[in-house]
Design goal:
The protein is of the alpha/beta class. The chain has 9 helices and 14 strands. An 8-stranded mixed sheet has the order 5-8-2-1-11-13-14-12, with helices on both faces.
């Protein structure tokens, strides 16, 4: 889409972005991207363009992705029914193999390819590479759904030092060689904490934290961890938002300066969040 704006207006836009470019220059930003925010192909192209733009202005971008809908689709193709307990996919050994194939293979490499096409320099790795994510069984009822026991960010730091955008798929492993399906929000929180990231941006299919879940005008733009805990208590944060906000608190507790939950379905929401004073979604900060 071409906008009918003058060169002077273009220059003004870039000048206004300067303080934000300076704020993020040479800082690490972890972007969690997945689930339903990944489904629309046109939006996916825009997200990759945004990531490459941030990369080219000197932001150290780490992309952590999930891919639940594509896993469900692949399981259906092989005639395997998907079952969830408490919002988590029951993962037997065969399902774990499909998760590894879809996340570490198809999705990871397609995102790497897109970033390269857009002018970035990207490298795909999984949580199994370099023992990036080690895990153990989270709950016997869930099978090979992993609870993270350790994060080794050396592979990510190596890639960043060579000017790559690391693209991380969230499968983990243990010392016995078992493969685990890891929740992408949780993995992103642990990785961002271990990298001492400036921010973690979680791209979802919701606007952010709402005071009234049915009214987008009640979006809370900024909240402290203490205020978030209060919203758990009074029921404002409920249902599917509970694990997302818990991951925000986990990331802050692990040293991330700020966490943003935002709607990845809004065009260029990444740039709105990082390079304007408007912001997008809800920002969670420490006390």
């Amino acid at each position: 889409m071409s906008l009918n704006i003058s060169n002077a207006q273009r220059a003004e836009v870039l000048t206004q972005a300067l303080p934000y470019i300076q704020e993020y220059y040479n800082k690490t930003v972890v972007i969690k991207y997945g689930g339903n925010a990944m489904v629309n192909e046109e939006l996916k192209q825009q997200v990759m363009e945004d990531i490459v733009l941030l990369y080219l202005i000197g932001v150290k971008v780490v992309l952590v992705h999930g891919g639940g809908p594509e896993i469900t689709e692949m399981l259906a193709k092989i005639g395997k029914k998907t079952e969830f307990v408490d919002g988590l996919r029951v993962t037997d050994r065969e399902t774990a193999e499909v998760v590894q194939m879809v996340l570490a293979g198809k999705i990871n490499k397609s995102l790497v390819n897109l970033l390269e096409i857009k002018g970035g320099k990207a490298m795909g790795i999984s949580g199994m590479d370099g023992r990036l994510i080690t895990a153990e069984t989270k709950d016997e009822r869930l099978g090979f759904v992993g609870k993270i026991t350790g994060v080794n960010v050396e592979p990510i730091l190596d890639l960043l030092s060579h000017n790559y955008i690391p693209v991380v798929s969230t499968v983990g492993c243990d010392n016995e060689g078992n493969v685990y399906n890891i929740n992408a929000d949780t993995a992103a929180a642990y990785i961002a904490g271990a990298l001492n990231a400036e921010s973690l941006i979680s791209m979802t299919d919701i606007a952010g934290i709402l005071r009234d879940k049915d009214d987008i005008s009640t979006l809370i733009p900024k909240i402290t961890t203490k205020e978030a805990v209060d919203l758990f208590s009074d029921g404002t944060i409920s249902g599917g938002m509970i694990p997302k906000v818990e991951c925000c608190l986990e990331a802050i507790n692990r040293g991330v300066k700020k966490v943003i939950i935002m709607d990845g379905r809004i065009p260029h929401s990444l740039l709105i969040e990082t390079l304007t004073d408007e912001g997008a979604g809800t920002m969670v900060i420490g006390e």
